[in-house]
Specification:
0% of the residues lie in helices and 55% in strands. The protein is built from no helices and eleven strands. Strands 2, 4, 5, 6, 9, 10 and 11 form a seven-stranded mixed beta sheet that branches. Strand 5 and strand 6 (57-59) form a beta hairpin. The termini are far apart.
């Protein structure tokens, strides 16, 4: 099994920055894709960003230009650098791992809270 552990969440003022980390362990493949999702109270979980093994990235329009996803394959860790944070970014952020040509999700992290407020 694959285990994913997020860290780096917290309280930040609007316009501030945070960097989230997601460390993978267990039967993770270096070729697995990684992604970040978020879920606000009363809302469905939504995709934030994804990154493939080769570095190809994709972003939700609402975060494009502000957030950057990256990975360190040697550490089996994926990061989400969040800049110019807005109150509407407040959510629990989850990382996941996906495998194969269908990008089947194989694991979710437990989530880390990000709160953007003055």
């Amino acid at each position: 099994q694959v285990q994913l552990v997020e860290s780096g969440g917290g309280l930040v003022q609007p316009g501030g920055s945070l960097r989230l980390s997601c460390a993978a362990s267990g039967s993770i493949f270096s070729t697995d894709a990684m992604g970040w999702y978020r879920q606000a109270p009363g809302e469905q979980r939504e995709l934030v960003a994804t990154i493939a093994y080769g570095g190809t990235t994709a972003y939700a329009d609402v975060v494009k230009g502000r957030f950057t996803i990256s990975r360190d394959n040697a550490k089996n860790t994926v990061y989400l650098q969040m800049n110019s944070l807005k109150p509407e970014d407040t959510a629990v952020y989850y990382c996941n791992a996906a495998r194969g040509f269908l990008n089947t999700i194989i694991a979710w992290g437990q989530g880390t809270q990000v709160t953007v407020s003055s």
